[in-house]
Amino acid sequence: MADKSSNVLKRLHPEDHDLDGQKRARANDGSPRPTTPSGGAPAAKPDMSHIIAQARARAEALKARIQGATGSPAPSSAAPTPPAPSDRIAALKARVAAATSRSTALSQQKAPAAQSYSPPVYGDETPRARGGLDIGLHPALLADTQQDVSRNKTRTPQSRFGNRGRDSFAATPEKAQLDLSGPSFEELKENPYFDPTLGPKNVVAKGRQSRQLVFNEKGKYIAQAAALRRQAQLEETKRKIAERTRLAGLEEDLNAERGFLVPAPPDLEWWDEGLVDGSSYDVIEDPSKLKIDTPDSIITIYIQHPVLIEPPQEKNNPAPKPMYLTQKEQAKLRRQRRQADLKEIQAKIRLGLEPPPPPKVKKSNLMRVLGEEAVKDPTAVEARVNREIAERQHKHEETNETRKLTKEQKAEKLAAQQEQDAAHGIHVRVYKIDSLANGRHRFQVSKNAEQQALTGVVIMHPKMNLVVVEGGEHSVRKYDALLQNRIKWQEMEAPRAVEEGNREVLAKWLEAEDENGELKDLSMNNCDLIFKGEAKQRSFRKWLGARTCETDTQAKDVLSRAKMENFWNLAKSFKREFY
After folding, report:
1. Which pick of 126, 373, 435, 485 has the fewest CB atoms within 10 Å?
2. What angle, 0 to 180 degrees and rounded to 10, lies between the N-to-C axes of helices 439-451 and 473-481?
3. From residue 40, how far is each of 21, 24, 33, 45 by CA, in Å?
């Protein structure tokens, strides 16, 4: 029977000899359309009474099972009768009560110590849900609302761990607040380590007092701005007055006149204030007013004047390089200098210290200066102008001659400059010359060394010649230019007459002519710089001139007096580099 009903309720597969091969259509109420059996005959309708009987049997079996669990008597085996509607409602209420009692018994067995839950009572003051349905809140949400209300009323801290935590926290008494106020001044006095010099203002802390609001008065900053504007206007007025005074030339005149005024001496100079007991020199005749031998005098036997020593590094500092001006800058400086001199002369004339100069008459301005005189007698006026021009020219030449230095003054000036140059440091140069057979070369080497205030010696040897000089930087540089560039060492001149008694006459290898009477060939003659450096002080006291040495021992003996014999060995081992 069940198989038949299940087959009836299923759709027919397209393979079950369905003519159209389509799914079954449904009616408006959702019930399936009856289909025809495979044999082509219409299927029989299901037996509804049988289906209802099966449903009632299952309901009775379920009811019997529930009554057996609750202990109610088993139903009779008689065929069930359809219950009335009132009996059906009563049966449903009994089933609900049985299910409720069973769940309560199970919960009491699992947790006997747990408290029974009582559903909340909904009154008029029960919070309602939002909306227009006027429906009460869910019991779970209602519990949270009650906690919020109690928290707002009691303001007690709530725990995060359920009702047990809240109950235990609410049962604890409130703790007393910490007293942050410090001890009083009387209590501090009882402390044995208390400092009695401290006052109560420095020990006892004061409470914080609120300050009152202070509003600026109306017009305060406007008045300040107005004062600043007036000050700026006053400064601008002073600046304009000073500018006009400067343009008018009054300030220069006042300063020029003030420069010639001699200020009055003070009553007591500042360097004598510690030696005179008074405010002027009138008490200098009274010995009791002088602080010289008194105990409080600034002059004692312990005053020491140390010897001033010049710093050694300053003399070796290089001289500052001169700054060259352009022609326009030179003309500008000259114009400014002449303008300043002219203003000084005008100031002296204005004060009456000098007479005013006569008008400067030239041929170009004689008609404008002399006027009617030039018209009456032009010849005499022209002669007068020529005479004044000649006088001015003569005066100018005389002024230049008076400014010139004499021969002695020039020599003194040059010596002072050379001494100052040597004070900055001593420089040493050593030169090796192949031959000094040319007398002109020997004269130039010695004479220029004397003129440059150099000290040293020239050693003439048959194999080579050695020149050692020392002096200031400027003098040595000039001498180096002479030996390296100016002298032509390959040139040879005819010998001059030699006076008797000269040691050069005895040295045959210093003669300009050879044995045949011809001039020697100096095409391979050279001058080489073999040493340059600085020394702490001079090794030679003066320029020794030329010394003729036939052997190496004589040459080393001359250099050993200045402790420079090593230069001879250096010259012998020196080899010229060919490029």
Report:
1. 485
2. 160
3. 15, 16, 16, 15
Please state the domain count of the chain.
Answer: 1
∠423-429-432 over CA atoms, to 5°?
160
- The helix, strand and coil proportions of the chain, stated in percent and rounded to the nearest 5, come to 45, 10, 45
Cβ neighbors of 558 (< 8 A, separation 6 or more) are 457, 459, 544, 547, 549
Between CA 28 and CA 8 the distance in angstroms is 19
Distance (Å, whole) CA 108 – CA 15: 61
Residue 315 lies in a domain: no
pTM: 0.41
Ranges of H-type helices in 111-206? 139-154, 162-171, 185-189, 200-203
346 located within any domain: no
Q: What's the token pair of residue 109?
A: 């067995």
- Residue 385 · residue 363 · CB < 8 Å: yes
Round to whole Å and give the CA distance between 144 and 138.
10
Location of structure tokens 């087959």: 7
Per DSSP, the residues of 493-553 read -PPPP--TT-GGGT-GGG-SB-TTSPBPP-TT--EEEEEEEEESS-S-SSEEEEEE-SSHH
- In sequence order, the β-bridge partners of residue 427 are 471, 534
CA–CA separation, 339 vs 249, rounded Å? 14
AA identity, residue 484: Q
DSSP letter at 516 equals: T
Residue range of the domain that includes 512: 425-495+502-573
Give pLDDT tens digits for 61-104: 888 888 776 655 544 444 445 555 567 777 777 887 887 777 66
Q: Which residue has the tokens 């601008």?
A: 236
Please, which residues bridge with residue 77 across strands? none
Q: Which residue has the tokens 């005499």?
A: 380
Q: Is there a domain that residue 472 lies in?
A: yes
Residue 552 CB coordination number (10 Å) = 14
Asked, for residue 539, whether it belongs to a domain, the answer is: yes
Q: Which residues of the chain have pLDDT under 50?
A: 1-8, 17-21, 36-41, 74-80, 112-116, 153-154, 156-171, 499-504, 579
Give the pair of three-digit tokens for residue 31.
């019930």
SS (H, E, C) 349-368: HHHCCCCCCCCCCCCCCHHH
For residue range 424-479, list pLDDT tens digits in order: 889 999 999 999 999 899 999 999 999 999 999 999 999 999 999 999 999 999 99
Q: Residue type at 129?
A: A
pLDDT of residue 354: 92
* Lateral strand order in the sheet of 455-460: 527-535, 426-433, 465-471, 455-460, 543-548
- Residue 470: which residues within 8 A CB-CB, separation 6 or more? 426, 427, 428, 429, 454, 455, 456, 476, 535, 538, 539, 540
